[in-house]
Amino acid sequence: MTHSHEPLIKLEGINLHFGRNHVLQDISTELHKGCITTLIGPNGAGKTSLVRVVLGLTKPTSGKIWQENDLRIGYMPQKLQIDQTFPLTVERFLKTARACSQAQMLEALKDVGVESLFTQSIHNLSGGEMQRVLLARALLRDPQLLVLDEPVQGVDINGQLELYNLISRIRDERGCGVLMVSHDLHLVMASTDHVVCINHHVCCSGHPEHVTNDPSFTELFGVQGGEQLAVYSHHHNHRHNEHGDIVPENNCQQKGSC
Amino acid sequence: MPDFLLFALLGGLGVAAVAGPLGSFVVWRRMAYFGDTLAHSALLGISIGFLLDINLNIAVIFCCVGLALVLVTLQKQRMVATDTLLGIMAHSALSLGLVAVALLEIRVDLMSYLFGDLLAVSQQDLYWIFGGGMGVLLLLKILWQPLLAITINEELAHVEGVNVPITRLILMLLIAVVIAIAMKIVGLLLITSLLIIPAAAARKLARTPEQMAIGAACVGCISVIGGLAMSWHFDTPAGPSVVVASLATFILLYSLPVKNQL
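^ Those are the sequences you sent over. The predicted structure of the assembly is below.
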């Protein structure tokens, strides 16, 4: 797949101060259509702050943000805590994304492999199920850009791989841009086109293999860390669905990078 | 049925129908103490109304809205924790109200403002209750989706294009209006109970926010009928009787052998 270089969002020289903390320092980057960009960096490096700037939740102290007109963003928050007093079924929750038919909602749930949860209460879902429902909701908005803040939090290791595969499949099918935040680099590498490694400033960025060989990356994560974070590149010949059953891999075609 | 009882019934049902859906938001967004604080400032509104010689309902609405704005501003300063701030405001506002009533030598029946005087609902009160109530319900209907969106998650709502501060402000305004019109029914010390007890009771059987909002309105209406009947037969004060009836409904619903809907 040749990657189209249509930018969805451009950040130029973004600076963000919280009091005396210079959280984001002169960050410039672009998010492209059909491209999965992964933001990595140690704890407290400003990953979530940068995502909030992209989403318009935090106003940067200085810098320019350009975004395509009427950009539709599908946002999947890190965690969605819904108060127990708020009665909500998966069906009703999906309807809050936009007015849509039952068929469309079931389609979105099927896309992420949890159509059986349709009538369930949102309070009964496991961590992994909730992440998938959140993803389905984001998809219902037919986004041009998907923003996922630590999408695999609270999901076991197989579930994590499954979710990352799912995210790259969604990108392939819909051609939307994706911005992800992650610290488990070794898992996310295989399904990423572009990595931006930040520690308040952009340490290095580029293709996953390029980034893992970059000296500043090794410096940030340590030599051993760098080795542990070696690119995860083997491919499964089957997947598991949400019940843990084996589902044969029907789409082995690997897409190229951008 | 004597007129005063009919007026009381209509007034009570009108308030309960509005307090149910709005009370659901108070429960979901954990605003019980906030509602209480606004209600406590109502007496201050009454004395300001007397002082400026304006309609008392309007004076109460403005006083509640003013306090809500002050609260939001102070909350942003983060000088003290929110519940401390609410505690300070609630009791200061009530005391200021009581002091103002004494200083201005206003001749009011304090008990009726504090605990309501349902049996004294006049035709003019009914206009206020139904006019204000319809307005609140209409706004709730129009803003239902954004209100649900900010209740689920404010940041998600913002990303999806909801104007979060305005929506939140309108919700506060609606609560202020409901407090002003409900004060006649249960009094400013008991208003919050009419907002949260029916909503909490309806939670037991509800699976969607809409079911809970409508269920809360129904529980509220049952409580008003039950409370009035109790007041009529046993000569108990009407406002507190309504609250006792809603508590009884709450206990009854939660002791039903029905699995919690979650």
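Residues 74-142 of chain A form one domain. The longest strand of chain A covers residues 7-18.

Shout if you want it in another format.
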